[in-house]
Amino acid sequence: MSTPKTPVAEGGTAANAAADPANGQADALAQAFAAEYSVRPVPAAGAVDTTAICNTPAALGELDELWQAVVLETRTRGNDIHLPISLAYAERLCRAYPDADAELVRVSTLLHDTGWAHVDESRIISEGFSGDWRKAAIRYEHEQQGCEVARRVLPGLGYSPEFVERVCEIIDGHDTRLVARSLEDALMRDADRLWRFDRAGIALASSWFAMDPATYTDRLATEIVPELITQAAVDMATADLGRSNALLKTAVIR
Fold first, then answer.
1. Which phi and psi angles does 26 have, rounded to 5°?
2. What is the rounded distance in angstroms from the CA atom of residue 82 to the CA atom of residue 96?
């Protein structure tokens, strides 16, 4: 099963990173991001933690009210596993990229897939995880619904209208737009991919794509690692994949 590649120059420059074929034109915000962070994968400015993600769960307590506001949305498509693990990766990435707005990255990551709870669940696997999934209508629907969740829950928790719209700008297009428009957008996208490399992510996501673990981890190496935007994410993914392959004995059980 093939996934479209993020158009970045691996190990070089970001000259092509602002071109979004889905729009048929360059994205101005993506162009600005690519110009500011011209080397890809984007080098880390801080320390990179490549230990198992269970060593550093997301900060306890700080976002509990937000988690409690979206409990319903965590009960669809494995979000109660996917979102907490992705948030833990997002926090690691923020430590590696201290110039990013960590609060924006964390909140966007926590909420980015909550829209799956508000679409036709019977279509999630059949449409959202098959063929050219980026173009699947249900992918656009879940992004739009995720923005609605953010606009519903965040104001009551004290977040400003401006912050809410910045969150929605990241959620809207996180799957269907091929390019990142800011460092915060890039970190959320990388966190959304990194969870797949942990053993829990492999166990869950491989079933979505109807793949055995060995086939799925091969796909992670050949298709998902090249999509990662930051060097910290590449380092984390590589370390996680090595551990997961060893634990699951994918070299033998294939």
1. -70, 145
2. 21
Residue type, 188: M
Mean pLDDT, the chain, integer? 88
What confidence tens digit (pLDDT) does each residue in 206-246 have? 998 889 999 999 999 999 999 999 999 999 999 999 999 99
What phi, psi does 130 have (nearest 5°)? -145, 155
221 within domain boundaries: yes
Whether 30 is covered by a domain: the verdict is: yes
Q: Which two tokens stand for residue 137?
A: 């209508």
Tell me the two tokens of residue 214: 């060995």
Q: Is residue 151 part of a domain?
A: yes
Helices (H), 40-160: 64-69, 71-74, 79-96, 102-111, 122-128, 137-153
Kindly state whether residue 130 falls inside one of the protein's structural domains.
Answer: yes
Is the CB of residue 184 less than 8 Å from the CB of residue 101? yes
Phi then psi for 19, rounded to 5 degrees? -85, 120
| Buried-exposed string 163-176: b where 16+ CB fall within 10 A, e elsewhere | bbebbbbbbbbbbb
Tally of domains within the chain? 1
Beta bridge partners of 40: 12
Domain CATH code at residue 183: 1.10.3210.10
